[in-house]
Amino acid sequence: MIETQSLLEVRDLRVAFRTAAGLVQAVDGVSFALSPGSVLGIVGESGCGKSVTALAVMGLRRSGRNTLCSGSVRFRGRDLLQMPERELRDVRGRELAMIFQDPMTCLNPVQRIGSQIAEMLALHTELPKSAIRKRSIELLREVGIPNAAARVDDYPHQFSGGMRQRVMIAMALACDPSILLADEPTTALDVTIQAQIVDLLDRLRDVHGSAIILITHDLGVVADIADEILVMYAGRAVEQGRKRDVFSNPQHPYTWGLLASIPRVDQPRPRRLPSIAGAPPSLIDLPGGCAFRPRCGHAFERCGEEPPLAARDGRADHLDRCWLPADEKGRLRASTQATAIGAEASA
Q1: Which residue of 40, 55, 111, 238 pairs with 60 in a disulfide if CB–CB is 3.0 to 4.6 A?
Q2: Composition of the chain by helix, strand, coil, percent to 5
Q3: How far apart are CA 216 and CA 222, in angstroms?
């Protein structure tokens, strides 16, 4: 699903880490495209390769002593994986910015918030010192920090978790980047603050025109903001398509499990949410064939052969990695949902 007029094109991205236990294949052949102003949601359980994919796009996981990285990440026609480090530093922050997962560990605890935003502006713009401070206050005000003129001189520990996340967003937006990568920006926040952060990203996308890659383990978080969804499992894309298609007609059993874990307002309140049986496989020793086969209740003989990512439901822009026939998937999906609802009622 790579378009010719894409802002970012990722093709066959592979990232592996050498460890004492063996080679960890963290990302295995992921491809996607990002158009200007669009939002791509990358979802999956912890350890499926979402964050490593984002770090590779940012050029923070290039080949080195213990890292192997291949494929291509083309931004405006230039491959970031082949770009010299000095040139990449100019692109990173100015054109590509990232909101990291834990703001408390990403913010410097001994520097004031304003100083940390100012550092980004001083590095990538030619604004004078007085204008940098003014711009820092404007950014804090833009992301919803009350009394920004006073709080710009506060330290990170003086902010709540939600406010720290807003500071991280302000830093990422400092240079009006073309692409914003948000790595689980709602993790560890309560539901109300999660909704505020998602609404903030959506609003800032409209104001700045930035494309967004939103990484999360929760399909519910991307339901309101994403245009396309990429579902990852064991380092691979197992389903990929427009949000409407993935939600209304999911094609992979793993996606069914993720959707079933979201509470539904049209069903009785469950005592316990349904979960996917088992645990993700080791990325050092993946099972043969379909990586999801050991946890799948619909596996059959052909699943011993690895399925390619392909269109199987009649839509060229909706891909999945499952051997089940398209007509059978609808019946099995309905059966899975009915079983999950029945288990909730009896819990």
Answers
A1: 55
A2: 35, 20, 40
A3: 8
Q: Which residues contact 199 (CB under 8 A, 6 or more apart)?
A: none
Q: Which residue type occupies 61?
A: R
Q: With bands split at pLDDT 50, 70 and 90, how would you rate the model's confidence at 158?
A: very high
119: helix, strand or coil: helix
Tens digits of residue pLDDT in 95-116? 999 988 877 788 999 999 999 9
Residue 3, pLDDT > 50, answer no
Beta pairing partners, 19: 22
User: What residue type is 99 in one-letter code?
Assistant: I
Averaged pLDDT for residues 223-252: 94
Map tokens 């304003």 to a residue: 114
Kind of pairing, strands 22-34 and 319-320? unpaired
Three-state secondary-structure class, residue 52: helix
d(CA 38, CA 65): 35
Burial 228-262 (b: 16+ CB within 10 A, else e): bbbbbbbbbbbbbbbbebbbebbbbbbbbbbbbbe
What mean pLDDT comes out for the span 44-63? 91
- pTM for the full predicted model: 0.89
Give the pLDDT score at 319.
96
Q: Residues of 49-87 as b/e, b for ≥16 C-beta within 10 angstroms?
A: bbbbbbbbbbbebbeeeebbbebebbbeeeebbebeeee
Q: Inter-axis angle of helices 326-346 and 253-260, to 10 degrees?
A: 30
Alpha helices by DSSP H, listed for the chain, are 50-57, 85-91, 103-106, 113-124, 129-142, 148-151, 161-172, 191-208, 219-222, 243-248, 253-260, 326-346
Query: Both tokens of residue 327?
Result: 């007509």
How far, in whole angstroms, is CA 221 from its chain's centroid?
11
- Give yes or no for residue 245 having a pLDDT over 90: yes
